[in-house]
Amino acid sequence: MASLEVTADAPTTPSVWRAPEFSRRWWPVFLRNLLVWRKLAIPSLIGNIAEPLIWLVAFGYGMGALVGRVEVNGSSVPYILFLASGSICMSAMNAASFEALYSAFSRMQVQKTWDGIMNAPVGLDDVVLAEMLWAAFKAIFTTTAILFVMLGLGISHSPKLVVAWFVLLGAGVTFSCIALIFNALAKGYDFFTYYFTLFMTPMMFLSGVFFPLEQLPQAVRAVAAWLPLSNAVVLVRPLFMDEWPERWWLHGLVLAAYGLLSFWVALALTRKRFRV
Fold first, then answer.
1. Cα(94)–Cα(171) distance, rounded to whole angstroms?
2. 8 A C-beta contact, residue 207 and residue 85
3. CA 107, CA 94: separation in Å to the nearest integer?
4. 82-100 pLDDT, tens per residue?
5. How far apart are the first and last CA of the chain?
6. Which of 98, 126, 148, 218 has CA atoms 20 to 30 A from the CA of 33?
7. Is 75 helix (H, G, I), strand (E, B) or coil?
8. Residue 152: pLDDT over 90
């Protein structure tokens, strides 16, 4: 009589593309980053707002004296207001990207902080969520400081700037998610050059920050209109002008789609990197 062989099924590895598994344990990770950063808050603030303010003063007042006024949706506005409403979106992008790239990579790869955190009952998904929210916090912290400076300079006193603050928060979340994709793929700091050179720099000049998109060729304008920074600028600029943006729901959906899809990809690639 032939013997029966009983074989156990090999355990299957869960897909890295599975749904996120979050808990409230992301908060201690976020709080840990906040407590560490608090010691360097002032130098960090100065570093984050110095460059955009230099851009604003040099181009806004310098080039603005030559350009004069710019047509935006049928309205004529001073160039410095045009630049300020675009550059603050660019600042949100830069602050979120730097934090989700260099700082997050240092904690993940160099300092092995993530490994230490995950020795506690904290999952990788919670760590990635905390890093994304922390980068978004850094972005809104920076843009809030810049916004107060712009108010002090009298660039805009629109009550709708309160709404612009929430749009900038959303933009910070979106760019944090995008940057975390490159953080998951990086082998070293040099890898981030691709992100800045091939993604961020072109987007800075193709998103209506420094000049209206109408100045671009039709084919380039069609592509630029779907960039995340372009949609953030389209939402924020009318609020600086004390107007409501047209088709705000479409631009908001574009930013939300970029954020959700990018976070899902970043989480999957990070799981793959940690083999979780």
1. 11
2. no
3. 19
4. 999 999 999 999 999 999 9
5. 44
6. 148
7. strand
8. no
